[in-house]
Structures are given as structure tokens and as C-alpha cells.
Design a protein that fits this description.
Blueprint: H1 8-25, H2 32-53, H3 56-84, H4 91-96, H5 101-119, H6 123-150, H7 152-155, H8 161-181
Helix pairs in contact: 2-3, 2-5, 2-6, 5-6
Length: 182
């Protein structure tokens, strides 16, 4: 390969090396995965309780759990940015939406199990399902992080703001339908 600084191959090789150095230097803040697991568990538990309660107080519990989760996610993303000095595309999707296939399946399964258990007043099972869901989402985020560090170009695609807005609208419509029909 040419060592001429004007050669595009030299510039591309230099850019690839800089990306590799940056990617290998990135670190998740201390306790990142544990905190996200706990936040997801709280959100799952409050959602199961609130949906089963089918009251205004239940709705308030659901919203409180969602607020806790979103606050923790925002704090973790801010800490990551402060520790590393950069933002990583895709990290927010992995945390906020459990965007990986396995994390999404674990989340949905834990939510379904938690809701069923809450309707049956099996509160220990609600707690267990919530913890399993939180751990599953954290493990999914850890898996994505390892994949990202191995190949950032292939794993950096996050959900676009437009897709996030559509998902938020769908979630709000679904939640409103649960309230009206429930």
C-alpha cells in the first residue's frame, strides 16, 4: 500500500485505525448494566401492577414506573457521553427500546408473565418476572455492546427519531385503548 498522504487508500486506512482506537477505548460507566436492569425491572413491575389494577391510581403507578425508567436511561446515556466524550449511535435504542431481538422477546415475555401474575395477585411472580425482564434487557444490551465494539460500522444503526415518534404514538394509542376498553 502507498504511503503517499494524498493517496485515498492511506487516508482510509488512517480513518479505520482511528475508529478502531476510539472503539476499543470506549467504556460503559460503572454499574451501567446493573442500573439499567433495575430500571427495567421497576418499569415492568409497575406496568404489570397498573394494568392489572385498571384504576386511575394504577395508571399513575404505570406512569411513575415509566418516568423512573426514562429518567434512569437519560442519566445513563449522559454518564456514558461524559465518561467517553462521544455519543454512540444505537446505544439509546438498545437501552430505551431493548432493540435486540432476544432482549425484546425477554422483555415482552416478562411483561406478559408479570401482567398475568398481577391479575392473579401472585405478587412474588410479578417481582420474579420483572427481575428476569430487567436482567434479560441488560444482557441484551451487553451483547450488543460487545458486538458494537467488535464491528461498530455494522452495529451502530439506531432507531431514527421518526421511528421513535411512531412507536411512541402507537404505544399511547394502545395504552388509551387499554384504558377505554379495560
Amino acid at each position: 500500500m502507498s504511503t503517499d498522504p494524498q493517496d485515498p487508500r492511506t487516508a482510509l486506512a488512517g480513518a479505520d485505525e482511528a475508529r478502531r482506537r476510539l472503539t476499543t477505548s470506549l467504556r460503559l460507566p460503572t454499574g451501567f448494566l446493573v442500573v439499567i436492569a433495575a430500571a427495567v425491572a421497576v418499569q415492568l413491575g409497575t406496568a404489570a401492577y397498573g394494568i392489572a389494577a385498571q384504576t386511575v391510581a394504577g395508571l399513575a403507578v404505570v406512569l411513575a414506573g415509566l418516568a423512573v425508567f426514562l429518567g434512569v436511561a437519560a442519566l445513563l446515556l449522559h454518564r456514558f457521553s461524559r465518561v467517553n466524550g462521544v455519543r454512540v449511535d444505537g446505544l439509546a435504542s438498545q437501552i430505551v427500546l431493548a432493540a435486540g431481538a432476544s432482549a425484546s422477546l425477554v422483555y415482552l415475555g416478562a411483561l406478559a408473565a408479570g401482567i398475568w401474575a398481577a391479575f392473579e395477585s401472585q405478587w412474588w411472580l410479578v417481582a420474579a418476572a420483572s427481575v428476569v425482564g430487567g436482567i434479560g434487557c441488560a444482557l441484551g444490551a451487553r451483547h450488543w455492546w460487545r458486538e458494537y465494539r467488535h464491528d461498530p460500522a455494522a452495529n451502530s444503526h439506531g432507531v431514527s427519531p421518526r421511528q421513535l415518534a411512531v412507536l411512541a404514538v402507537v404505544a399511547c394509542v394502545g395504552f388509551a385503548a387499554l384504558l377505554v376498553l379495560g
